[in-house]
Amino acid sequence: MIRIVMKKMIFAMLALLLLTSFAPQNVTTIFVIGDSTAANKNLSKGSPERGWGMALQCYFDEAFIRVDNHAVNGSSSKSFIDEGRWDRVLSLIRPGDYVIIQFGHNDEKPQADRHTDPGSTFDDNLVRFINDTREKGGIPVVMNSVVRRNFSADTLVDTHGLYIEAPRNVASRMHCHFVDANRITHNLEQSLGVEGSKRLHMWYKPGEHPAIPNGRQDNTHFNAFGAHQVASLLADALTIEIPVLKKYRTNDDPCRMP
């Protein structure tokens, strides 16, 4: 009986050693926390809407970099914490992982369960994300919000105000990596112009897409083309801000995104 138990223990230990040997210990995770512009989307009804976080994996070698997207539709920096979503991410962070922090679109909204103020509660939440990430041995990367497609004549006009300055200021004060996603997407939208920039967004005429029979004019959210364009540019910016990531950057031949 004792011999049988010993044999079982030995087999169990060998199995554990084998599993550990083949586990992807060299894989670094890039977590994304943020709002609907980055979020994973419900594709069950064939919607073409995509968040840029869904496409980011296509621009990093998945053998070494794994993108884990926790951005959620409607989230602000406040609601992401209050709903327990940040605690979930914190439980997954390992030393050396990265956390991309991008909020602002919903912090601007007046609802009490979403709203924060730049220079005050918004900044406090960003500081918490940064400090908590560092305590787990992770590396925080702050981004400000992507632009809305808001043209006046031929010029793209900002809609975020101080909500795009606060992340920059917090990152500077906290000596944290910062990527100016607002400037990057502003330049992209402006370069495409009033009509061309519609191609990035959920902008469809009635009957143009089977999942949107009545059409849609959405200047905030991306379709698959827009998500890939933004993800590619943000991947470039990440490799500039964090040069060690450059060797894992893949070429611009987009992988299949659902």
| Approximate helicity band | 25-40%
- Looking at CATH, which topology would you report? Rossmann fold
Stretches where pLDDT is under 50 for at least 5 consecutive residues are: 1-23
- Class of secondary structure makeup: alpha/beta
Record field, number of beta strands: 10
The side-by-side strand order for the widest beta sheet comes to 3-1-4-5-8
Look at the structure and give the CATH class. Alpha Beta
User: What's the Cα radius of gyration?
Assistant: 21 Å
CATH-assigned homologous superfamily: SGNH hydrolase
> Terminal Cα separation, in Å?
53 Å
Instruction: Provide the β-strand percentage band.
Output: 15-25%
User: Count the helices. How many?
Assistant: 8
Report on the structure:
This protein is of the alpha/beta class and 258 residues long. The protein has a single domain, classed as 3-Layer(aba) Sandwich (Rossmann fold). The protein contains eight helices and ten strands. It has helices spanning 2-22, 52-55, 77-82, 85-90, 121-135, 165-173, 181-196, 224-241, and strands spanning 28-34, 49-50, 65-69, 98-102, 139-143, 151-152, 155-156, 177-179, 201-204, 216-223. Residues 1-23 have low confidence and may be disordered.
